[in-house]
Design brief:
The chain has 21 helices and 17 strands. By secondary structure, it is α/β, with parallel strands linked by helices.
Length: 785
């Protein structure tokens, strides 16, 4: 554009606008808002800026429903904020089709007035603001969008930007850009909500007390422009004199802000009595073998606080067994560190305070921390952060302040270049580190029920007790199964939803709780084969027991874990194979497809426990399985369900002859010789079976029945009755039908009724009376050995 006339410059802008406009049809179906920016706006005559902008508008043809952005930069801040605002107001008043434009501000910070220019430009009529986090950008940077947004928020205007966790935003910014937010940066700086002046501290205390008592309807605390907690910050009181910042800010304060501990006060008071200089020798009378009063007081404070062991262990020192000797050794190490690197004998009060502060932090209990951090073994996920119920979250280790030991890859199931993830649990005033650790153990339990994979907690948890000071706690976690645990972004949302649903459910009963614990033990084994017995024990815990029909474990399990890949019959056969595999493993053998079967049953038990924990299977899984078997068996019209009715029989000599079961001998049904399989084959098999048995004694008596069969009590499995479809006994060509026994042969009025409320709708009462002592249905052609 150098050495060009205004007309030529406008022509160049129009050609570029046409080039873009002609290519818009290629993006059919995409809503596009086109922006135009006269880059040197603040250094250009406003009339020419208006002409070139309107020439571009003629090409793009904006409308009130399809607006374009007119971005007006304050390039290198050549104008003062009020002059820039006057330029914005002139453009808003004079440019054509103002209702078809979104007037945008793009300010820089060369004069350090970018925020002021932006706020005045908004008052002058602009609609939109462009900026960056903490003012990052060319030269001195762009507008700090955080400052402008929170300035509006301070005046009660919602900026539509979420800065509720400003500490986390700052941490990500510093990690990604390698730059540091200044300590006195508005809203985000380390010292913004720290008061050093005594009068300020007093006024803030009183204002916070008034606010806490509900004495104000809106925020009006002196020296605090907004409530720090609204942006995830907190108010702090500094030392009486302002000291330079020695360490880089490392994120939010994790420990509870309270007054100096009793231990710190006693140590400060006692150690403070030591002479500032010891360059001149003391009189011999003062140089006795006894310790000074300050030393003895400090020794007593260390013994009372019980911090010597932790302090000495952290520095690789030998820990004496006697408390007094231990305290003296700790004080010796403390003073060696206090004067280490010094060239004189003067006592540096500032260094003493720092050392005592470190000692005080190490003396704090883990229960005093606000959070507990544990490395997660084996986790790989695409997200940097996953929020879960009860204040539990999973974060990348490099996104928060964490101890070095929590960042190590050794034993974490990952390579050194892969990110480490941490589980973080909040600690409230009513519970401490043990409760937080319990929540993190439950997190691993939920993740194991959610999907397959090797995941667990690391051997140690860490509670922050001060700046770069951590208290280590043993988690007691078992070794984790190899292979890792991969969590995609969509799975992360599903996991959070699953955990939220579980949180709303009551605690599981003892059987389900025990089963989940046993399932977890299986998940901690080296492989699914190693955990096979654990998974079967979990299955037995919830499925074995009484039920409506007393079905076996394979039948019940198949009713609840059958899916699209394996129907109920195939699932039952697989469960029976798994049980056979367990018996083989106990005897030192294995079976074909052993790994496949062990993996399948683990996944099936996981799905079963997950549904049970969500309350989808009722409170009694055995009854649910039996009712499912009954309902699905009747609906399918097949005979795959085996129903066992157990009775306690007396010995043969105790049973009178007249109590023998009396049944009418049925006429044998004709069987087509051409039929070789199906129901007819089973009938033939039953007849052959009965022909081989010894003849039963038949006595004829003059009673209402002509023929009786007196049967001795059979041994278990001695007699086998196979049911056939009732339509097989009907000759369709002759038009016959199956007739029920005559009603007059039975005393229907005085028979005993058995009520089954849960399945009553499945069993309509027939017109005749049937007596069945043992009934067994079998699926034809699918028997298993």
């Amino acid at each position: 554009m150098f050495n060009l006339s205004k007309k030529e410059i406008i022509g160049m802008a129009v050609r570029g606008a046409k080039l873009i406009y002609e290519r818009l049809p290629r993006l059919k179906g995409t809503k596009i808002m086109l922006p135009y920016s006269p880059e040197s706006f603040s250094a250009t005559e406003v009339e020419f800026a208006k002409d070139i902008s309107e020439a571009v508008m003629d090409v793009w043809k904006p409308t009130p429903r399809n607006k374009m952005i007119l971005n007006l930069p304050d390039t290198v801040e050549v104008a003062m904020p009020n002059v820039y605002a006057d330029q914005i107001e002139w453009m808003c008043r004079n440019i054509k089709k103002r209702d078809s434009l979104v007037v945008s501000l793009h300010t820089h910070n060369d004069r350090y007035t970018g925020v002021a220019a932006t706020e005045l430009g908004l008052l002058a009529g602009a609609d939109r603001v462009e900026g960056t986090l903490f003012g990052n950008g060319e030269r001195t940077g762009n507008l700090d969008i955080v400052t402008v947004a929170l300035n509006l928020y301070m005046h009660g205007i919602d900026p539509k930007l979420d800065f509720s966790d400003l500490n986390a935003i700052r941490e990500v910014y510093e990690r990604c850009t390698g730059m540091t937010v200044p300590a006195r940066q508005p809203y985000a700086g380390e010292l913004v909500f720290t008061a050093f002046s005594g009068s300020h501290q007093d006024a803030i205390r009183k204002g916070l007390a008034e606010w806490g008592n509900g004495g104000r309807n809106h925020w009006d605390v002196p020296y605090l422009t907004i409530d720090p907690t609204d942006i995830g910050r907190e108010y702090r009181e500094g030392h009486s004199r302002q000291q330079p910042i020695r360490k880089r800010w490392r994120g939010p304060t994790f420990w509870k802000a309270n007054s100096a501990s009793r231990f710190r006060r006693k140590c400060s008071a006692s150690l403070g009595r030591l002479p500032q200089r010891s360059g001149s020798p003391r009189p011999r009378s003062e140089r006795s073998g006894t310790k000074s009063a300050g030393w003895n007081a400090a020794r007593e404070a260390v013994v009372e606080a019980g911090v010597a062991s932790t302090y000495l262990e952290a520095r690789g020192e030998v820990v004496p067994p006697e408390p007094g000797t231990r305290a003296e050794r700790m004080l010796e190490v403390f003073f060696i560190g206090l004067w280490e690197g010094s060239t004189g004998f003067a006592l540096d009060r500032e260094r003493l305070e720092e050392q005592i502060a470190t000692l005080d932090a190490e003396a704090r209990s883990a229960d005093d921390a606000d959070e507990l951090i544990v490395p997660i073994v084996g986790l790989r996920m695409s997200m940097n952060r996953l929020q879960l119920p009860n204040g539990v979250r999973i974060v990348r280790a490099d996104s928060i302040a964490a101890p070095v030991d929590a960042m190590r890859s050794e034993g974490m199931g990952r390579a050194a270049w892969e990110p480490q993830f941490l589980a973080v649990a909040e600690q409230g005033t009513d519970h401490g580190a043990e409760e937080a650790l319990h929540q993190l153990r439950e997190l691993i339990s939920v993740m194991r029920m959610f999907k397959v994979g090797g995941i667990g907690l690391g051997p140690f948890a860490f509670a922050p007790t001060g700046e770069d000071t951590w208290r280590r706690i043993i988690t007691g976690a078992a070794p984790t199964r190899p292979g890792g645990y991969r969590l995609a972004e969509e799975e992360g949302a599903e996991l959070a939803d699953f955990a939220a649903q579980l949180e709303q459910r009551p605690d599981p009963d003892s059987a389900l709780s025990w089963a989940v614990g046993r399932f977890e033990m299986g998940g901690e084994r080296e492989s699914a084969m190693e955990g096979l017995s654990d998974h079967l024990l979990a299955l037995r815990a919830v499925l074995e027991g009484h039920g409506p029909v007393g079905a076996s474990l394979p039948l019940r399990a198949s009713a609840l874990i059958a899916d699209d890949d394996f129907d109920r019959i195939e699932a039952r056969e697989r469960v029976e194979e798994v049980l056979e595999l367990e018996r083989a493993l106990m005897n030192g053998r294995t079976l074909d497809r052993a790994i496949e079967l062990a993996t399948w049953i683990e996944d099936g038990v996981r799905r079963l426990l997950r549904q049970a924990a969500l309350g989808e299977l009722g409170s009694d899984l055995s009854a649910t399985a039996d009712e499912t078997l009954i309902a699905t068996g009747l609906e399918a019209g097949d005979a795959e369900i085996t129903v066992y009715a157990e009775e306690d029989f007396d010995t043969e000599e105790d049973v009178p002859v007249d109590e023998f079961r009396v049944v009418e001998a049925p006429e044998p049904a004709a069987v087509d010789e051409a039929v070789v399989d199906g129901p007819a084959a089973d009938i033939r098999e039953a007849e052959e079976y009965l022909d081989d048995e010894e003849a039963v004694e038949v006595e004829e008596e003059d009673d209402h029945m002509d023929t009786r069969i007196l049967e001795p009590i059979p041994a278990p499995g001695e007699i086998k009755v196979t049911a056939t479809h009732w339509l097989d006994e009907v000759d369709e060509e002759r038009g016959q039908s199956l007739e029920w026994p005559a009603a007059e042969e039975r005393d229907l009025q005085h028979r005993e009724r058995i009520d089954t409320p849960r399945v009553r709708h499945l069993f309509p009462v027939p017109d005749s009376d049937w007596e069945v002592a043992h009934l067994e249905f079998e699926h034809f052609g699918r028997r298993t050995s």
